[in-house]
Amino acid sequence: MTASPILDAYRLETEPKWHQTDDEIAMFSAAYGARLPVMLKGPTGCGKTRFVEHMAWRLKRPLVTVSCHEDMTASDLVGRYLLGPEGTHWQDGPLTLAVRHGAICYLDEIVEARQDTTVIIHALTDDRRILPLEKKGELIRAHPDFQLVISYNPGYQSVLKDLKESTKQRFCALDFDYPAAQVEAEIVASEAAIAQASAETLVRIAQKSRNLRGQGLSEGSSTRMLIHAGRLMAGGLSVGEACKLAMITPMTDDPEIRAALSAAVDACV
Amino acid sequence: MIPKYAQPCLRLSMPVSETHIRPAATAGLADPLETRIAAAHARLVGAGYGVGVPRAYQQAAPKVAEHAGPDAALALAEAASRIAIRARPRVAAQFLDLSVPMARRLAAAESFGRWLGLLLGVLKPAPDALAPLLERMEMLHQRLGIGPLEAWVQTGLRLAGTDLALRQAYFTLELPEAVRLLERHAGEDTFHSLEGELRATHRALWGQSPPIREALPQAKGTAALRASFGAGVIQLPASYGGYRGRERLIFKAALAHIGAHMAHGGPRFQVGQLKPLQIAVISLIEDARVETLALREMPGLRRLWLPFHDVPPDGMATTPSLFGRLARALIDPDFPIRHGWVRKGVEMFRAGEGQIGSPALSRHIGNILGNDLGQTRVQFNARDYVVQPVYRDDNLGLWDLPPDPHEAQQHHHIDIETHDLRRSEETDSPQEHKTERADQSADMPPEKIVPAPAASGVGRIVGRLPEYDYLAGIERADWVTVKEYEPAPGDPLFWRKLEDRQGPLLARIRSLVRAAAMGRQKRLKRQAEGERLDLDAAIEASIQLRARSTPDHRVYEGVATPDRSIAVHLLLDTSHSTGDPVSLTGPSIIALLREATGVLAHAMTQLGDPLAITAFASDGRDDLRLVRVKQFHDDLGPLTGMALSGLRPGYSTRIGAAIRDAGARLATVPAHRRLVLILTDGEPSDIDIRDPDYLVADARRAVQSLNSSGIDVFCIALGQGAGQRHAEIFSKRGFVQIDRLEALPEKLPALYLRMTR
Ligand SMILES: Nc1ncnc2c1ncn2[C@@H]1O[C@H](COP(=O)(O)OP(=O)(O)OP(=O)(O)O)[C@@H](O)[C@H]1O
Ligand SMILES: [Mg+2]
């Protein structure tokens, strides 16, 4: 259980606040106890990242986070040879770092990465728990503290992009969604430091925008957006101004949908 | 979905202004005007148009001269003469009578000339349109002004093409599309212009997407004045006339009010022994009740509704005034209450606070108040009663009314439109269109098919194609005659109704398409040149250098240019068998074809891929029957919608010839890839061919020859077992079988995206 100091930079000093919405803390702890990989499903900005941070803090493990993107190659995750004055030397990638030294590794939006990237986590996420470094000719056995967590937004899946069945079936999964109105208002009030009543109005507006999910918007306003709007209000903007700046304008360019969102804001204040 | 019509210009190709309106100098001599008018009059008398025309001219000319100048008065005679010849003397007289008020309106000589030009411009291609146009001219001009009027007229001529019945329907404003275009050209906010916003707003506020339709004109033909709802369908008036500048607010307020009814209302009230007055008052209280509840969640709606409550607190105690005051007092806490009846209503409503969740409260209060009012001398005229304020609905949705023929029609208004069209077509059309139009309703009900509609006029021969005889092993030149047929006029609102029916699907496809479009930009690794170093490749290269071996010089990264353009020619098999229903009760295959094509066309337009749609059938080798639904350069406007929805099943399936024609058209389109996509429900067959292998072999040959010129051919085979011979024609990888036909609209775009990736 003694992780190496290499990962000290990845330790969380202060507690990332988490409002429990269900039994997610107990469930995650159980999965970690069995060292099973976990998939967090849910729309953008609903608290997945915050939750992993909170759990890493709670479990006292370092956390290595990688945001996946379309051009990400296996080398970006695993590591590569670099050219130095002494010749070439191997540099561990973030995943290798976590595997070697025992961190929780969080791969955000794994579907975005190219297919060959998802394949390298296969051996890590079955009972072998190994990571082969092909280029280096090394086989790493995962540190006993290592755990892999990925996030996955079901809203984005399309005929063109989806996780392979063999990938999906390796993970335990927790469903995330925007919290219940009351809880979400509390989160917004405390994160943005605004009055509960204002937070409730924001949440009501967000719920209206979520009605447009799949009907003009691919997502409604996230908790994150609400917190942003709340901060703007704390800074002196009116609800309408804050919503426009933090929610409506970023979300869509479609004039009809914008009009509908403005109408929702108008109706709620 | 209004096409971008070419900027209309009717400004007279005819030389009215030059020849007939002479410079004022010559007209300025010592009163030659009267003499000249008299001369023009004499010419009209001599022309033998009857007495009406010269008489009307004699009366009109001096007044027109007064308002629009002497030259206009003289031009009048010439124009009247042309109208008398091309249309009828009666229409010419009608024109002359109208010229006086129009001259008054138009005032300047120049705009009067322009107006004459507009009429004469119609006269040439569509003399029949003149009478209905003149009849409505003053109203049209008042709403549009001369420029937009020209545009509206031009649009009508284009929209109707050669279809006399349709033209008549347009210029008599019986065609709803004509009214809508009128409103658009007038620049008013209408249901049509606000529709998308309203739908999205309703969805956002209430989390539901009930169908929102434009209310049809009422039975008497007058426009609907108020919103309405019932049976889960919301109907909004086409426009709120007389509220210029506030239309958008009224529409929003009306829809929010109906939203409140739907969210907080109960089952329909039973009418029982209630009198009309009580019904009206109960409805009024119910309106206030649901609004009160809605305001608890969305207090901002008050700002939307309140401005329309503009009744003053006192004045004559008529029913409309008292109703208005009560309605206002119930939503506006600051409204002074100066009448006992209003006060009683407000007090009862406040006292009922505890039961506000139940519609029974409205019934209770309304009953008593209605009774009270009935005891007084106040008149209530149920027949002319219109709910106030303007944003509120007609209350029909609140009541379980005895079946009323007009109301039933309201719910199936699409049928009305088609019936109307058919009626005018049968009575007015000189060519005997007998096309079946029964299947245009929104829900694609099972339709009655009239096979082989011989009516689509005669085809125009546009070319001849070779055909392959596998027995002889030769290709016979000029063997098949290709004829183009005018599309049968279908539903001009096809695209809008498609949005209605398939809204969620279209939205999903939109996001799919967006994802696919983004996927086009690809980063290319290990390029010989590029904007930046490919790190992996560069490192490998240096490693190789140090190892003293030759490095790979491709160490750059580039971005693939998104020049993936695919031109598609969609071929729709409309042979007789496509009239069969998909299942026992389902829609016909052709109805599904139209639907799927519509959805696909939507998606492709967004991708910006050029698309042509041709429907084909055949009646022997002398008659390959093609309907050009959409050419590559056409917009997806009402015209394409009409052509697509106008397709009818009939005749046989000569696939090979259709493929050759599509390929030839496609060859001229500049694109990276070209694809002929065929939707068919069966095997090739035709009346003049016995040998089942003959057309199969010909089709295969056609596919091969297209392939060799770089055009892909892909087939979507509909139905079960239809696939036996498709593999032979298109090769195993060149077709898919879709047997769950109902899924077609959904599957087709996804398939297309995958195919063209
Ligand atoms: N239950 C919760 N307790 C505390 N904060 C929360 C909770 N749920 C959401 N939040 C807040 O929501 C915001 C967004 O959360 P986070 O960044 O974790 O979203 P995410 O799901 O990871 O989004 P993405 O998928 O875009 O990465 C954070 O600021 C966080 O404070
Ligand atoms: Mg009402």
Short description, anyone?
With 269 residues, chain A is α/β, with parallel strands linked by helices. Chain A is 41% helix and 16% strand.
Describe this structure in words.
The complex is a heterodimer of chains A (269) and B (757). Chain A has 269 residues and is of the alpha/beta class. Chain A has 2 domains: 5-175, Rossmann fold, CATH 3.40.50; 181-268. Chain A has helices at 24-33, 48-58, 74-78, 94-101, 115-120, 165-168, 181-192, 196-210, 223-234, 239-251, 255-268; strands spanning 38-41, 63-67, 79-84, 87-92, 104-108, 130-133, 138-141, 147-152, 172-175. In chain A, a hairpin with a 4-residue loop joins strand 6 and strand 7 (138-141). In chain A, helix 8 packs antiparallel against helix 9 and helix 9 runs antiparallel to helix 10. Chain A is elongated. Chain B has 757 residues and is α/β, with parallel strands linked by helices. Chain B has 4 domains: 4-185, no CATH class; 191-426, no CATH class; 474-514 and 565-755, von Willebrand factor, type A domain (Rossmann fold, 3-Layer(aba) Sandwich); 520-563, no CATH class. Chain B is built from 29 helices and 16 strands. An 8-stranded mixed β-sheet of chain B has the order 6-7-13-12-11-14-15-16, with helices on both faces. In chain B, helix 7 (109-123) runs parallel beside helix 10 (146-160). The longest helix of chain B is centred in the last third of the chain and has 25 residues, at 494-518.
